[in-house]
Amino acid sequence: MSMLRAIGGELQCLFPMNPHGQERFEWFVLTLKAILVPITVSRTSNLRRAIATLFGVSIAEWRYDTFMASVKLPWEAVWETLWRAIPQPLVEGRLLLALDDSINPKTGRHIFACQTTFDHAAKANQTRWPWAQTLVTLGLLMPIHGRWCCLPMAFRFYLRRATLQAGCLRVRGKAVVFADKFAQAVSMIVSLARCFQTARVLVITDSWFGNNGLFRPLRQPLGTRVDLLSRLRVNAVLYAQPEAVPGKLGRPRKYGARLGSVAECAKQQRAKARCYQVRVYGATREVEAADQVVMLKTLRCAVRVVWVYRRSQWVALMTTDLRLSVAQIVEYYSARWKIEAGFRELKQEIGSAATQTRHPDAVTNHLHFCMVATTLTWIYAAHLKQAPARRYASQSTTEYAFADVRRALAKDIAEEGFGSDCPKSGKAQRKSFISEVMRLVA
């Protein structure tokens, strides 16, 4: 049984077995297939037309819009099914989770979760305060056929307190309660960690999330099996580990002598730097780095700090997992960049940014569909015996891309789909039609 048929059978069990439930399942799978086939942008209207054109299923416009805004889609169970379907999700015994936030600019009012948001990455010709949705996203980092990939696992819409105070925002009749990004991140990580109860969890973040606002709430439900890997700010102060003084009365010291700021220690550690062979950004490179175990007051525990030196710059990384080697720390943090590539795959290639929906449930369901499609694509890649060939290879880029996996998946969808989701009549005709359209698009 193929991967698509196996997952399709598990997803079918999540829907009621009555006629309405099975019709909802059929439309659910058809929507996923329409997103996965790289032919059109994933607007709701485009998806309905793609379903009619490619798969021969005509759905009334009002019925399909009602389905896309349905409150009966079992997303929690769908995500848990996908989490368990990932082959070999652990990397050296750890679950590597990338955490970051992104913005999704929109045009038009009365769009759910839109607010005036500060964009720190805005270019010179872009506004610093766009009208956009803010997404806190959790992804799974894992190597697939020799390259790091980021599989979207969960997301939350972040709404500022000022936005909620300006107007009462309701979803399904209930007022939206403010939750900061740390609380949203903790809820997603805890849910995912409970699905993998025996695995150690390493959360890889940028410097904004790398503090006790995230680490302390995570340690309460998950204990010592969760650790943090982040980048250090240059002005963070480091302390030596405390030394026990025999015979001294009173409470033992929590911190040793002050070592200085990260920038000051970087100059001192430069003479102790060594060269390591690390796989970074798709190639094995020689990295000059130095490390030291110190105390950090922002986390109130011992951390391993790694200074990575370049020609004229340096970067300081820290982790609470003292068992990680220098090479592992550098490689895992460099793999964090794949979540940024995942945002591009989700917004531009899958087309989540092009949605025109405004209703809260429709906006949320559409993003769920796009993220599930992205994760399914990478799960499909992990089940392939060998990596697909890169379509537009060059001397500097030889690894396969997300679009290459999606193209191979579209061919399998044309062959068999998810099993019981295709009507029996006209199957061969639709199969050849999809293949012809794929050839024209390519």
From TrEMBL:
InterPro entries: IS701-like_DDE_dom (IPR038721), RNaseH-like_sf (IPR012337). It comes from the Bacteria. Pfam families: DDE_5. Residues 56-274 form the Transposase IS701-like DDE domain. This is Transposase.
